[in-house]
């Protein structure tokens, strides 16, 4: 294991509220070369955890190991870590070249070695033509690449990035995160980035570490976490589901019991299909579907999101723009073919038990 966190906690003293646990009992192992996303809502402890790994915060409890060496007492400089801050922290009065060269100059590297390394990074980050510009002459995406190159200049063994795309507009953000993911994999450096954006984590990370209120809730590949959430919080945070306490009266789910009163049922939009009675493709599904009324329609760019009332409950589903248009107030058939159920005894995925009677080729 390249990086290990064992029982890491961070407690802050607050004047009015006493002691507050920003991070509590985190155990985590990261393999060499992995690209890890620390994901969670605001206040979940993501940045505090990242700063403890970097040596910018000292754990109240627990130990941090890098390549089997305990680094709790090592300074940030001695941990061989590159850090990209949320605001990039570029030196305003230095050129792109000078910003990238700064760490090497602090280490008193030779001028020839510095020039070779900086020119190599300028080429890697596609900044060669901009090497004599100052930060205020660059776009947000270009500044981010300068910060990335500067962090790599001293050849760190671990790269940490705190919300690296927070200050960039949506279109550039998508392009830049693909670029950054490819660069990190090309360089082959173990990397951890903080984000509160689920799409960003899913798009970039080899593995997601999901935090809530300072505690590690679940780790896994993006697909593992999305398809097999461990808790109702994970299921609701990853995606845009509807959460219910029961599905009584819904065909195919009548056998779900809620003896404790603590059961939560999560319905994702992609688990639901809406269709008309006259659509021959879905003729066989009519007996296992519900009657619904379209209450709202939202344009989502690549699809429509329909809000449909079924048995007094509003559900959401997606509809391709290529299909026939839908009107508010229109009656449609609604098929729920899978749900996530969370109870005190655990989490499970339950399929509609009537679907074995019909043709499932479209799913």
Structure summarized in a few sentences:
23% of the residues lie in helices and 33% in strands. The chain has helices spanning 46-54, 96-106, 111-124, 140-153, 170-187, 198-204, 222-227, 232-237, and strands spanning 3-14, 18-30, 35-39, 61-66, 69-70, 81-84, 158-162, 190-195, 207-212, 215-220, 242-244, 264-267, 272-275, 290-299, 303-310, 313-320, 331-336, 338-343, 346-351.
Protein described:
This protein has eight helices and 19 strands. The radius of gyration is 25 Å and the shape is elongated. The chain folds into two domains: 3-229, Rossmann fold; 240-357, OB fold (Dihydrolipoamide Acetyltransferase, E2P) (Beta Barrel). It has a six-stranded mixed β-sheet with strand order 6-7-8-3-9-10, with helices on both faces. A five-stranded antiparallel β-sheet has the order 13-17-14-15-16, with no helix packed on it. Strand 15 and strand 16 (313-320) form a beta hairpin. It is an alpha+beta fold and 363 residues long.
């Amino acid at each position: 294991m390249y990086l290990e966190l064992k029982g890491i906690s961070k407690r802050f003293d607050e004047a009015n509220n006493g002691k507050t646990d920003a991070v509590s009992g985190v155990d985590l192992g990261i393999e060499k070369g992995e690209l890890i996303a620390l994901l969670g809502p605001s206040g979940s402890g993501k940045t505090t955890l990242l700063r403890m790994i970097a040596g910018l915060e000292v754990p109240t409890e627990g130990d941090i190991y890098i390549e089997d060496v305990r680094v709790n007492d090592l300074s940030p400089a001695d941990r061989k870590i590159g850090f990209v801050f949320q605001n990039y922290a570029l030196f305003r009065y230095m050129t792109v070249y000078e910003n990238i060269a700064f760490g090497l100059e602090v280490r008193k590297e030779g001028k020839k070695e510095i020039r070779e390394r900086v020119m190599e990074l300028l080429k890697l980050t596609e900044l060669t033509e901009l090497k004599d510009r100052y930060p205020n002459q660059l776009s947000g995406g270009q500044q981010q690449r300068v910060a990335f190159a500067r962090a790599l200049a001293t050849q760190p063994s671990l790269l940490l990035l705190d919300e690296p795309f927070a200050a960039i507009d949506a279109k550039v953000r998508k392009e830049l995160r693909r670029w950054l993911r490819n660069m990190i994999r090309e360089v082959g450096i173990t990397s951890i980035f903080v984000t509160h954006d689920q799409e960003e984590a899913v798009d970039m990370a080899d593995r997601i570490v999901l935090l809530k209120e300072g505690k590690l809730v679940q780790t896994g590949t993006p697909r593992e976490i999305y398809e097999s959430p461990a808790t109702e919080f994970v299921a609701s945070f990853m995606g845009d589901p509807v959460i219910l306490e029961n599905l009584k009266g819904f065909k195919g789910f009548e056998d779900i019991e809620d003896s404790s009163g603590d059961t939560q049922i999560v319905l994702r939009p992609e688990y639901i299909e809406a269709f008309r009675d006259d659509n021959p493709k879905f003729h066989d599904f009519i007996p296992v579907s519900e009657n619904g009324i379209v209450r709202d329609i939202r344009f989502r760019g690549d699809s429509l999101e329909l809000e449909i009332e079924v048995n007094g409950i509003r559900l959401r589903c997606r509809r391709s723009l290529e299909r026939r248009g839908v009107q508010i107030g229109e009656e449609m058939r609604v098929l729920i073919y899978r749900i996530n159920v969370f109870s005190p005894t655990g989490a499970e995925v339950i399929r509609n038990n009537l679907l074995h009677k019909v043709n499932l080729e479209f799913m």
